[in-house]
Design a protein that fits this description.
The complex is a heterodimer of chains A (333) and B (320).
Chain A (H helix, E strand, L loop, with lengths): L4 H19 L1 H16 L6 H26 L7 H23 L2 H28 L5 H19 L5 E2 L2 H7 L1 H4 L1 E2 L2 E2 H19 L1 H11 L1 H6 L4 H27 L1 E2 L7 H11 L11 H20 L8 H15 L5
Antiparallel strand pairs in A: 1-4, 2-3
Helix pairs in contact in A: 2-14, 2-15, 3-9, 3-10, 3-12, 3-13, 3-14, 4-5, 4-6, 4-12, 5-6, 5-12, 9-10, 10-12, 13-14, 14-15
Chain B lengths: L2 H24 L2 E8 L4 H20 L3 E8 L2 H13 L5 E4 L4 H13 L3 E5 L11 E5 L1 H15 L4 E7 L4 H15 L4 E8 L4 H14 L5 E3 L3 H14 L6 E3 L5 H9 L8 E2 L5 H14 L7 E4 L3 E2 L15
């Protein structure tokens, strides 16, 4: 546009600055929480505690990165917790069977880990196909699979728990418990998944299509974007993320029971929303999602490290913080 | 109504009731069992033992038919109770209510239609809706671990506790635990947090306990599932100050550990077996076959499981 560059810059600088501030909501929230945590308990600010929190965030965080794509494209997935539980159960059953059968326990564990990702991708593909080709609302499809996945796990586990055999469990344990350069493996994986997610979302044509579909599906269709393919891929991506999270989760306790992954879907969705992504889609950020996921685990960590409020009110504190952070970044949607 | 006619009416009712007793004894017992679905290990055990009871008892008694229904939530269970009453036409019911308050009316309706009702574990808010009540001993579930820990620690040390889900049942256990510790002033309960009878939550809560407290002598995990998470967190933090991890309920894995003496920290457990559903079905069925009643309340005792008696509590085929 033929306008003086300086004027244009000035007129845009203000909204940009406030937009940035809004985007900082989760970061401000996290910083405030960390200060509060340090004041309440000096052990909060130790490296060990930070690593504990980041490691336990890894599961939800990795799932949330995938969820971020799905939500930005205007979809939703309510089944991820059940899906993680079923994948965990299937992987445990597979490794227990393949360990003695193949004669190479290490191979069995590696194949189990691959199976986790493959199963995740397949479940995601099924969701994507049902939603696009089957023309069913994502809410309904994943509400259905939420029940299906968990019911099958309960069935396989006979209502009890599926447990990894001891030797195999020791072999697999380092995947969760080992550290590289002082940082636990799950945290590394979390960082790598988040970086790849960020690059795909912000630096590739695919990422732009996801955002375009989320902000206006019809316009994207007219712009010759293959909407169905892009949408299916978001669910496959999420499935892969759930698979990765599960392959990290299995060695933690070496077991899966019908309570595994309960309400993870809501935690992942909360992380995405607290991180500044609009639930109706169109725009969002991976950085925000990561911060959102960490913020949620820091709250429960602080509550466990202190005993100043009644234990009955823990869930209320989490609710309050989620609402306050969302308030800090209002106006973006 | 005058007192005279009332007396006549009462006599008539009593006579009718007496007359119906032998008649009942001759009748077949059509027993309905309504339990929650197997959504966690303990309920998996309840389902296993209910089916086991059906298998054993139907083989033993020709005149007995047992129908088992499992429900995923309270409203579904209420619907199933209606079906049991009107479609299956049961004349006896053993029910493990999903929620106490929500199921009271539906159970009362089944009883009003003439079925004999035994309520298991979770009570109803109005006891007139039931004929008998069979339950585990929640007070002992809290008292026994506290006594064991106090004795093992020689009356001195630091203890942390994990709680289940905020319910009256959990409060009952915690109160019993605290009551014992009152007699041991040198044992300090550092904190008690909810871990929702869930392994993952127990892992996190324990990690945070270990960060927060430098010296912990005993952890009351208050559930065998939660104890799994507790042990993993201790292992990861490489802490060796914890001398006792006390679970609860007598899950088969934990009982096996005690039997084999595999883990020094796990020397004992307290029974709260889902097998009480088996006992409740058996007691109800056999009493009804004879036309008898159960005592108003039957408490299946919770006892200390140690290496000596562990084999009595080991059921390898049960999922729990």
């Amino acid at each position: 546009m033929p306008q003086p560059e300086a004027a244009q810059h000035r007129s845009e600088s203000k909204p940009r600055w406030t937009e940035r501030l809004h985007g900082l909501g989760p970061v401000i929230g996290l910083v405030l929480l960390c200060i509060a945590g340090t004041l309440l308990n000096s052990d909060f600010a130790t490296v060990d505690n930070a690593m504990n929190v980041l490691t336990r965030t890894a599961f939800i965080g990795i799932i949330a990165v995938g969820m971020c794509f799905v939500i930005i494209s205007g979809g939703i997935d309510l089944s991820v917790g059940s899906m993680a539980a079923l994948i965990a159960g299937s992987v445990i059953m597979f490794i227990n069977w393949a360990g003695p059968a193949s004669g190479s326990p290490l191979m069995a564990v590696v194949m189990g880990a691959v199976l986790a990702v493959v199963l995740g991708a397949l479940f995601g593909l099924a969701h994507g196909l049902l939603i696009t080709k089957g023309r069913i609302e994502p809410f309904i499809v994943t509400l259905g699979t939420l029940g299906i996945f968990r019911a099958y796990l309960t069935y396989f586990a006979d209502g009890g728990a599926l447990t990894l055999d001891n030797d195999l469990s020791d072999l697999y344990a380092p995947v969760y418990y080992a550290s590289l350069a002082g940082i636990p493996v799950p945290v590394w994986v979390f960082v790598i998944v988040a970086i790849i997610g960020g690059v795909i979302l912000n630096r590739t044509a695919y990422g732009r299509y996801v955002q375009a579909i989320g902000s206006n599906e019809q316009v994207a269709r007219y712009a010759a974007v293959d909407v169905d393919r892009v949408k299916i891929l978001t669910y496959v991506l999420l499935g892969v993320c759930v698979g990765i999270a599960t392959l990290l989760y299995v060695p933690r306790l070496g077991s899966a029971s019908p309570t595994t992954g309960l309400l993870w879907e809501l935690e992942a969705i909360a992380a995405v929303i607290v991180g500044g992504t609009a639930l109706k889609g169109g725009a969002g950020s991976i950085t925000g999602t990561v911060v959102g996921a960490i913020l949620l685990s820091v709250i429960s960590n602080i509550l466990n490290l202190t005993s100043i409020i009644s234990v009955y009110l823990n869930a209320a504190v989490q609710g309050f913080v989620i609402i306050i952070v969302a308030f800090l970044q209002r106006g973006r949607r | 109504m005058t007192s005279f006619t009332r007396r006549i009416a009462l006599t008539a009712v009593a006579a009718a009731a007496l007359a119906s007793l032998p008649a009942l004894a001759a009748e077949k017992v059509n027993l309905g069992v309504s339990i929650p679905a197997a959504t966690h290990s303990f309920m998996g055990g309840i389902n296993y033992w209910a089916n086991q009871a059906k298998k054993d008892l139907e083989k033993e008694h020709k005149d007995l038919k047992i129908t088992i229904k499992t429900a995923a939530n309270a409203p579904e269970q209420a619907n199933q109770l209606q079906d049991l009453s009107t479609v299956t036409k049961i004349n006896a019911l053993v029910v493990f209510p999903f929620e106490s308050a929500a199921l009271t009316k539906p159970v009362a309706q089944v009883k009003a239609k003439g079925a004999y009702v035994t309520v298991v574990d979770r009570g109803l808010t109005d006891t007139s809706a039931q004929d008998a009540y069979v339950a585990g001993d929640n007070t002992a579930f809290g008292r026994i671990p506290a006594e064991y820990i106090a004795k093992q620690l020689g009356g001195k040390g630091n203890v942390v506790a994990l709680r289940g889900i905020a319910t009256t049942l959990d409060n009952e256990r915690m109160d019993a635990f605290n009551a014992v510790l009152k007699n041991h002033p040198d044992i300090k309960l550092l904190d008690a947090k909810y871990a929702n009878w869930n392994r993952d939550d127990a892992f996190k809560v324990t990690q945070d306990y270990l960060t927060r407290f430098k010296q912990i002598d005993a952890i009351w995990a208050a559930d065998d599932d939660m104890a799994v998470g507790v042990l993993k967190a201790i292992e990861q933090a490489k802490r060796d100050d914890i001398k006792i991890v006390f679970g609860g309920a007598g899950a088969k894995g934990m009982v096996k550990t005690i039997m084999d003496g595999k883990d020094k920290r796990i020397g004992a457990d307290v029974s709260y077996s889902p097998k009480f559903i088996y006992d409740a079905i058996k007691l109800t069925a056999e009493a009804r076959l004879k036309g008898e009643k159960l005592p108003a309340t039957t408490i299946i005792p919770s006892v200390l499981i140690t290496k000596e008696n562990a084999k009595d509590f080991y059921h390898p085929n049960s999922p729990f």
